[in-house]
Every structure is written in structure tokens, then in C-alpha cells.
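Open question from group meeting: does this chain pack into something compact, or does most of it stay loose? Before anyone orders reagents, we agreed to write out a predicted structure and look at it together. Recording both the input and the output here so the notebook holds the full record.
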Amino acid sequence: MKKAYSVTGIVLILIIGAFFILRGEGDIIESTNIMAELSLTSSAFSVGESIPTVYTCDGDNTSPPLEISGVSDNAKSLVLIMDDPDIPEVVKTSRGIEKFDHWVLFNLPTNTTALAPNYSGEGVLGINSAGEAKYTGPCPPTEYEPTQHRYIFQLYELDTELDLTSKATQEEVRNAMRGHILQKVELMGLYDRSN
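C-alpha cells returned:
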């Protein structure tokens, strides 16, 4: 009988943990709707495909087209963060970072359904890891392995607007989002300059 209670307790803890914790960075989801409907896609590449050169440092360095759908009625703003988790260890050590932030965009209106290439519409640009308030395209250094990096576009739906300025960093944006995330979705593309 005690064993049955123990197993039931463990299962209950796992269910509660899965309900509140979103994969990835442990973002807390405030919504009771765990069936995320939020969607982020691109007409330029699909999940796991190569990002076209035009959207990188080897091309025009413009942001790719993105399409958004499934924003819930109680959302107040959207946040988009693009980062590279595959930066070389030497860069991580020298700059004291774990990821290179390529794009930080917050307070996007909830009726946003598309971000055109080289997006310059509504929303507030935060500071990326290059120290600039703009999109910086994929540019993996060819002298380090792996030469192919993952670029992860993360879209967050929030129950508030963020009280931050355009000088806000990705870390400041993430801290301000805590406790306000309703849904999150990711789109991952690849880029390799050694080809």
C-alpha cells in the first residue's frame, strides 16, 4: 500500500512539474492552457534547414521573413529573441556569455502576424551581443568547430508589456518576462560558412 502511494506521489510531482516548466531554459508558463497554439514559421527556411545566405553576414545581413499565428486573446505583447548557442568556448570565456544574441525585439503588438525581411516595424529593439539595437545575421567563425551553428528564434507571448527601454539586453528582457509568459515557441535554422 505504501509503495502505491509513493508511485502515485512521484507521478503527481512529474505531472505538476511538466505542467509548469517549459523545455529549454526553465521558463515558467503562467497559462493553464498547456496545449500551446502559438506558431512561428518562416517562408525562407523550415525547422532544421539552412538559413539562406541573404539573411547572414555573408549576404545582406537582413532579418528573415517570419510568420506568427495562434496568439491567445489574453496576450498583451510578444517578445522575439534570436540567439546562437553554438558559439566557440573561447568566445564564451572571453566575453562571459553562453550564447550570442543576434536579435532582441520586445513589446511587439499581439496582432502581429508577420515580420517582413529587414523588419523595422512596431516593437522595441533591445541590445544584441554585438552591442547594437538591431538584427545581426548568422556569422559562425570558420576557424572553430563546429562550423555549422544553430540559430534559435524564440517567440514568447506575455500577459503584459515590458517596462524597458531600447537599451535593454536579452538578460534584462528575460528577467522582466519572468512570471508573465503565456506561451513560447521556437524556430531553429542552421548556417555553415565553411561550405
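Observations to bring back to the group:
The beta strands are 39-41, 66-69, 77-84, 100-108, 114-115, 124-125, 148-158, 181-192.
Residues 9-25, 28-35 have pLDDT under 50 and may be disordered.
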